[in-house]
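Kindly go through one protein, given below as sequence and tokens. The question is how this chain folds according to its tokens.

***
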Amino acid sequence: MFPNGWPGWGLLLLRLVAGILLIHDGLSYLLGVPQWEGVILQSIAVGAGLLLLVGFWTPMAGVVVVIVELWTAVSRPDSLRSCAILASLGAALLMLGPGVRSIDARLFGRKRIDLGDH
């Protein structure tokens, strides 16, 4: 879906917040003393955050965010709150789409199907 107006701005805000938090959390972890499993997960999270920032492959990035954050919540229960928020944002963006202010909207745009007179 590619809503414009206030809903489009709302989706842009969701994408920006989720993307920035994913990139921040991922880079913070990677700059610390990471464990091997965490390096892979947080690298994937940073990549998904970048995709969400620009609105490219938003539904796929949303799926990746949900999976990574659920896995992180299981493996590191100390970050349960941020994992739950980010997984929820990823799921919301998966279901709602990127909005009109995204690369997805430019590439795939709104399609009109004319069924004619039947």
Summary: The helical segments are 5-31, 36-54, 58-75, 80-96, 103-108. DSSP finds five helices and no strands in the chain.
